[in-house]
Structures are given as structure tokens and as C-alpha cells.
Amino acid sequence: MTEADTYAPRPVAGWFKPAAIATAVWMMFGCAVYLYQVTVDPAELPLDQRAMLDAAPTWMWGAFAIAVWVGLAGAVMLLMRRKIAEPLLLVSLIAVLVQFSAYFLDPELRQSMSSDQLLMPIIVVALGWTIYFFARHSRMRGWLK
User: Fold this and answer.
1) How far is Cα 79 from Cα 131, in angstroms, rounded to an integer?
2) Cα–Cα dist 84/64, whole Å
């Protein structure tokens, strides 16, 4: 079987729509977390969370915004079965990688977090990667127009 046969256009799989809806829900959750993070009063947070918030560089917040809002647009395009979903979700994935690179590049931020707090970035990157490849697979199958 050749690669052309593997990715020949096929009818849309039954799992496509539930997966696209789950993608949109995940991205909406990310947008809600972003809005909470940028509007929260640091005085209301526990000291460890306040230290992380204060240590986060501005460019990290910009990458976070791009990741969630472009990701939401990509998820909506995926639901609408549009090819633009794939590049939008790639931009979102790259923004997530940039955002979480701050944990490795910024010594102050790195020192303000515990090893337990690294689990969420790992989950977010893994899901972002999976969502991008879902969009890529969908385009290659001819499910996106």
C-alpha cells in the first residue's frame, strides 16, 4: 500500500465530529483559564501562585493568548471542516511551546515553581500535539475543504 492509498480521500469518520467538539471544548477551557489568569487579583492568590504570576515574563502571556485564541479559531474551523484549521492549530501548538519554554528560559519563574507544577504543561503540549495531528490527518483524508 502506498502513501497515496493510505491518505486517499475517504468518507468522514464517525468519530470526527465528537473529536472536533472535544477540541473546541478544550480550547474554550484554555480561553477561560487565560481570562482568569489575566484578570485575577494577585493578592487573592496563595503565596506560591502569586510568586509564579509575578515571575512570568510578559512574552509568556502573549504566547498564552496566541495559543488559546488562535487555537479556538482553529477548533471552530475544524468543526466547520475548513482546511485553515490545520495551520491555525499549528500556530497554537507553536505558541504553547513558546509559552512553556519560559519555564526553562526564565530562572526566576523556574525557581518559583515546584516539580508538581510541570505536569500541566506536559499535558497541554501533548494535547496540543494530538489536536494538531488530528487536524493534519483530517486534511490528508480529505475531510477538510
Assistant:
1) 12
2) 20
Q: How many CB atoms lie within 10 A of CB 145?
A: 8
Residue in 111, 114, 96, 107 with CA at minimum distance from that of residue 60: 96
Q: What separation, in Å, do the N-terminal and C-terminal C-alpha atoms of the chain show?
A: 25
For 34-80, how does the pLDDT look when each residue is reduced to its tens digit (9 = 90+)? 999 899 888 888 887 787 788 788 899 999 999 999 999 999 999 99
Condensed to tens digits (0 to 9), the pLDDT of residues 9-24 reads 778 899 999 999 999 9
CB atoms within 10 A of CB 34: 17
Residue type, 97: L
Match 519563574 to its residue by C-alpha cell: 109
Scan for cell 482546511, then name that residue: 83
pTM over 0.90: no
- Count CA within 13 A, CB hemisphere, residue 68: 21
In angstroms, how far is CA 98 from the centroid of its own chain? 11
